[in-house]
Design goal:
There is one protein chain. This protein is α/β, with parallel strands linked by helices. It folds into 2 domains: 3-141 and 341-477, 3-Layer(bba) Sandwich (FAD/NAD(P)-binding domain); 145-338, FAD/NAD(P)-binding domain, CATH 3.50.50.60. Helices cover 30% and strands 23% of the residues. The protein is built from 13 helices and 27 strands. It has helices at 14-26, 44-47, 59-62, 78-91, 182-192, 216-225, 227-251, 253-267, 274-277, 296-303, 387-408, 433-436, 457-466; strands spanning 3-10, 32-36, 98-100, 104-110, 115-120, 125-133, 138-143, 157-159, 174-178, 197-202, 208-211, 290-293, 306-310, 313-316, 320-323, 328-330, 333-336, 340-342, 350-352, 355-356, 364-365, 369-370, 376-378, 412-415, 425-426, 444-445, 474-477. Strands 1, 2, 3, 4, 5, 6, 19, 20 and 23 form a 9-stranded mixed sheet that branches. It has a 5-stranded parallel sheet with strand order 8-17-9-10-13. Strands 14-15-16 form a 3-stranded antiparallel sheet, with no helix packed on it. Helix 5 links the parallel strand 9 (174-178) and strand 10 (197-202). Helix 7 crosses helix 8. The two termini are 22 Å apart. This is FAD-containing monooxygenase EthA. GO terms for molecular function: flavin adenine dinucleotide binding; N,N-dimethylaniline monooxygenase activity; NADP binding. Belongs to the FAD-binding monooxygenase family. InterPro entries: FAD-binding_MO (IPR051820), FAD/NAD-bd_sf (IPR036188), Flavin_mOase-like (IPR020946). Keywords: FAD, Flavoprotein, Monooxygenase, NADP, Oxidoreductase.
Length: 481
């Protein structure tokens, strides 16, 4: 017989550890396990090993509400974030609940028995009353690399940041980083410290803003009020600050563009072609802004250790790449910082009573469940502010929902759209390439609550923390007799 749990959490990263803590604290009587495909916890922060990897959100909001971030640096590197996550797991007694090398390959729901049967890669099965997907939205086994003509001709080393070799030595070498997103702007200054020279080659510029690595106000508040109260007040401050910046960019895009350009100009050498390399054709926050702590990217450019080229690749050559302009860039190491492959629910195929679930035919309920799919919850954070802000609210709501079902003797909970003609749009209204490549494989969202996927923290506080867990379009039932 399969081992049975009240809840199975898939993924031991920042979302899975958070979900486990909320379950253990709010519903201590529930049995649960956290299934991790890899041999270590931490998700993204353990998987990625490229130079300089860090968060581009401040840890006072990217951290958990219940666990203060005590470090002086609010923009932190991966080792410190990983230590924070594993400390959280240990402090909350979650280590014993994490099962490593448990890769989920399928999940099937039975209404007759009101349970999920989860199949693992080794053929074993587990069952649960609820399945909670905390696996993020990208593939862990491979990143995205476009087809480059002549790639096989290149005589040097080609590496994708998602699969960084431990023995890669770039000291004194010419490095070409292809890309302009968060990963690229992290890699360039980090590698430039020891490389001969680093070139960032981009097709299209990104909006890039310097941010202080240390939050002086946060550190003063923690010193004056103590770590817990100081953290709480800093968190409130930064939530308001994030919302204000995003709202300003969306309401006044032309003004925001001018402000960002002015900041960039002050950070770059006199006479630098700012409009060529730092003036995107889209409005601010059509895609995520890239943050650079203490302006490290700009410092690398000013020092001459790094440079930016805006052009398109025609072909790889034996010694580098040739561009549409005719220019050739020689390199010893080429880093394809070209993005992620989006994959919802870890790529696990779902079936409900024998019928396959096609994600594109489902609609997201409160940004945490899927129409027509019973007893399944998932954790997807914000794209316009710190990911974890939403995860905490989702986990709170999930625990309240389970408590409501226990109080009323329900075994099954299924969202259903009352009006089949309700207009829908993409689940994530975000212009990033990695989202656009996969938009037809993701759930949809509606044009009204509870079918909207909110990206606003205050709205979600009202919906997920303060509002009732019940809704006319959320249906409850017991096990059929």
């Amino acid at each position: 017989m399969s081992e049975h749990f009240d809840v199975l959490i898939v993924g031991a990263g920042i979302s899975g550890i958070g979900a486990g803590r909320y379950l253990k604290t709010e519903l201590p009587g529930k049995s649960f396990a956290i299934l991790e495909a890899r041999g270590a916890s931490g998700g993204t922060w353990d998987l990625f090993r490229y130079p300089g990897i860090r968060s581009d959100s401040d840890l006072h909001t990217f951290g958990y509400e219940f666990k203060p971030w005590r470090d002086e640096e609010s923009i932190a590197d991966a080792p410190r974030i990983l230590s924070y996550l594993r400390e959280t797991a240990t402090e909350n007694g979650l280590d014993q609940h994490i099962r490593y090398h448990h890769r989920v390959v399928a999940a099937s729901w039975s209404s007759e028995h009101a349970r999920w049967t989860v199949t693992l890669a080794d053929g074993r099965t587990l069952t649960c009353g609820w399945l909670f997907s905390a696996s993020g939205y990208y593939r862990y086994d491979e990143g995205f690399t476009p087809e480059f003509a002549g790639r096989d001709r290149f005589g040097g080393t080609i590496v994708h940041p998602q699969h960084w070799p431990e023995d890669l030595d770039h000291a004194g070498k010419r490095v070409l980083v292809i890309g302009s997103g968060a990963t690229a702007v992290t890699l360039v200054p980090a590698m430039s410290r020891t490389a001969g020279h680093v070139t960032m080659l981009q097709r299209t510029p990104s909006y890039i803003l310097p941010v202080p690595k240390k939050d002086a106000i946060a550190n003063a508040l923690k010193k004056r009020l103590g770590p817990e109260r100081g953290y709480a007040w800093t968190r409130r401050k930064n939530i308001v600050q994030q919302k204000a910046i995003w709202s300003f960019c969306r309401r006044f895009p032309n003004t925001a563009r001018k402000v960002i350009r002015w900041v960039n100009t002050r950070q770059l050498p006199a006479g630098y072609p700012v409009d060529e390399h730092f003036n995107p054709p889209y409005a601010p926050w059509d895609q995520r802004l890239c943050a650079v702590p203490d302006g490290d990217l700009f410092r690398a450019i000013r020092s001459g250790r790094a440079s930016v080229v805006t052009d398109r690749i025609v072909t790889f050559t034996e010694t580098g790449v040739r561009l549409e302009s005719g220019r050739e860039i020689d390199a010893d190491v080429i880093v394809t910082a070209t993005g992620l492959n989006v994959q919802a629910f870890g790529g696990v195929p779902l079936t409900v009573d024998g019928a396959a679930v096609k994600l594109a035919d489902t609609v997201a309920y409160k940004g945490m469940m899927l129409s027509g799919v019973p007893n399944l919850a998932y954790a997807i954070g914000y794209t316009n502010s710190s990911w974890t802000l939403k995860i905490g609210l989702l986990c709170e709501h999930f625990c309240r929902l389970l408590a409501h079902m226990d109080a009323h003797g329900y075994d099954i909970c299924r969202p259903e759209v009352a009006d089949p003609s309700m207009p829908t749009r993409p689940f994530l209204d975000f212009g990033a390439g990695y989202i656009e490549r996969a938009v037809d494989q993701l759930p949809r969202q509606g044009d009204r609550m509870p079918w909207l996927t909110s990206m606003d923290y205050q709205s979600d506080v009202r919906l997920l923390r303060a509002d009732s867990v019940t809704d006319p379009e959320l249906h409850f039932a017991g096990i059929p007799v």
